[in-house]
Amino acid sequence: MLTNPAIDTVFFYLFALLTLGGAILTITRRNAIHSAISLIVSLLGVAGLYLLQHAEFLFAVQIVLYVGGIMVLFLFVIMLVNLDQMAKERQFNRGWMVGLAAVAAVGIEIGYFFYRGQGSFKLAEVETPPIAAGLGNTEILADVLFQKYLLPFEIASILLLVAVVGSVVMAKKRI
Amino acid sequence: MHPITELHYLALSAALLLIGTIGVLTRRNIVIILMSIELILNAVNINLVAFSHVYGQVNGQIFAIFVIVDAVAEAAVGLGILIALFRNKETVLADEIDLLKW
Questions:
Q1: Is B21 part of any domain?
Q2: Taking CB atoms and an 8 Å limit, are A36 and B35 in contact across chains?
């Protein structure tokens, strides 16, 4: 691969900063629209991480689908539902201390696992040979998706159809 | 500088997962709870793509596509429920919906 490790490192920390900074702003902002815009920044950071790992198709899907599709849906619903007094009210629920304590416990657990179990991340050798070089990422992905994973793909399309019909039915005024 | 390994990606993904969980557990606004769920699903995707990269296989990326499909379905249904809820209860705050509470 034509990559320079130093540049990779710099870009990794840049995208990690975008991702985590956007995520923290998303859950702390008072105004829901500011939250949504922070979430866009965070999702763009994740897209950059995909690009760093040579997952070019997922990079495009992340931007087109998440940033272009889901976020527009979120902004649309926020503007449909937004009440002016909602931003002035209490933003966190009464049990926030309990929630934060539970998350801190899980975080300490994960940190301890990373600290003690670093050696176990040396991954075993894979049985199947790595994918052939020379083909593009999208081409390889399409080959695998439409041959090996054809049935899950069809099930996913049915899931999307059900979700679309369900959301239209629920958002209707009278059925 | 240290080269970036899969451990960096796993740590980043764990941090993103924890931030998303804090959002789900502590916020009152349902729209922001749904956004936090998107953050959690993205953390899962980072993990899947990182392992896909390490192994030189694309199976992880295929799974990430399915996770994205689930995220889309979840967002559409969740926001549909939210609109129906707002029409009936005039609120988007999670702790004011307490009809089933003792």
A1: no
A2: yes
> Does the beta-carbon distance from B62 to A118 stay under 8 Å?
no
Tell me the count of A-B CB pairs closer than 8 A.
221
Domain range for A102: 92-121
Phi then psi for residue A92, to 5 deg, are -115, 145
| Closest residue of chain B to A48, computed from CA coordinates | B46
User: Angle at CA B67, nearest 5°, toward B33 and A79?
Assistant: 35
Q: Which residues of A touch B50 (CB under 8 A)?
A: 53
pLDDT of residue A95: 82
Q: What is the pLDDT of residues A4-51, one digit of tens each?
A: 778 888 999 999 999 999 999 999 988 888 999 999 999 999 999 999
The C-alpha atoms of residue B33 and residue B36 are separated, in whole angstroms, by: 5
Residue span of the structural domain in which B71 resides: 28-93
Structurally, chain B folds into a number of domains equal to: 1
Residues A99 and A83 in one domain: no
Minimal CA–CA distance to B28: which of A155, A126, A89, A75?
A: A89
Which residue of chain B is at minimal alpha-carbon distance from A173?
B84
Q: Pick A144's closest partner by Cβ from B50, B62, B77.
A: B62
Asked if A61 and B68 come within 8 Å (Cβ–Cβ), the reply is yes
pTM of the model: 0.88
Q: Could you state, in chain order, the average pLDDT of each consecutive group of 10 residues for chain A (175 residues)?
A: 75 94 93 91 94 91 90 86 72 85 93 80 59 75 91 94 92 76
Judge whether A128 lies within some domain.
no
Rounded to 5°, the CA angle B73-B75-B77 comes to: 65
Please indicate, yes or no, whether residues A73 and A2 belong to a single structural domain of this protein. Answer: yes
Does one domain contain both A111 and A141? no
